[in-house]
Amino acid sequence: MNWWGTSNPDNSLFDIYYLTITYLPALSSDPNPGRAVIANSEKNLPNNTVSLSMVGGDDLDLALQKQSAKDYDGAIALYLAVIQNEKSSSRGKYALVKIDECFTQGNKKDFLTFSAQQIKPLVKDDAILSELLLELDAHWYINNGDYNKAINNFSKIQKDYNFDKEIDKATLFRIGAVYAIHLNDVQSAQKIFNEFLSKYPNDPLAGDIDRLLNMNVNKNAVANNFVRMNQSQAKEILPEGNSLSNYPNPFNPTTKISFSIPQKSQIKLKVFDVLGREIQILANRVYEVGQYEVEFNANNLPSGIYFYNLTTGNYSLTKKMLLLK
What we know:
Elements: E1 3-4, E2 26-27, E3 36-38, E4 49-51, H1 59-68, H2 72-86, H3 90-105, H4 111-123, H5 127-144, H6 147-160, H7 165-181, H8 186-199, H9 209-213, H10 231-235, E5 243-247, E6 254-261, E7 265-272, E8 278-287, E9 290-297, E10 304-311, E11 316-323
Parallel strand pairs: 1-2, 3-4
Antiparallel strand pairs: 5-6, 6-9, 7-8, 7-10, 10-11
Helix pairs in contact: 1-2, 2-3, 3-5, 4-5, 5-6, 6-7, 7-8
């Protein structure tokens, strides 16, 4: 499930036992504006509804079926046809997002090449789709470690495709995040974030800026292999201080995040993506003194760098981990 805007969807709105919420890629705007997408065959649907039970033979309907059946190449070909024939409509934008989704779900590595050769020629005359493609390409650049190329894409959006404040907000935040997290260029990040704060001081993203600027990420750290212990064993150990690590690292698709606490505390353990967006809350409760281990499953996430943050009442610690599929 894709999302858009500047704030993560609230997990409490979904039954996540049956549903996986994938926060990547996050788009700056709704790819299907003003329309609901439902899966049924009822007649007399509202005017703002797109039914997924379309007349047989519809390219978008067939593409969705093929994607559901994990025929990603077949789905991509049909989504391309939708873009070519309906690129000025919301369906064209929706199809472009689904192509990116197929590459992620199918663990296909060549999205950027495909984008340059197959998608860009189709969308070059459409400003909306060109802006969206720049966003999607930037996401893949970040996963590949090409951070300056990602910044170039976001800067191009700022210059040529800055249609509204939602795009402006998301783009400024992303540029600052790349500078802060990946390039360790705090000065450039602060400059971008100052521009963001001057324009949008009350935006929810403003609250994340200090955390991004002060992330304590040891880029050369090697994860320790903590001995697994159950809760009764953990209570018998009184660690001298707080610790945080994960093993294995790199990992695929699961890793164990271990932490120890020297005193009874309210603990929050969260995972974030490369742009500082919250992916999952792994722990949020009071823990007794001891050492603990929580599993993080990234089965539905793309390869790339992720951060995990442990917060108590008086300190915060963040580490980096690498998902390689």
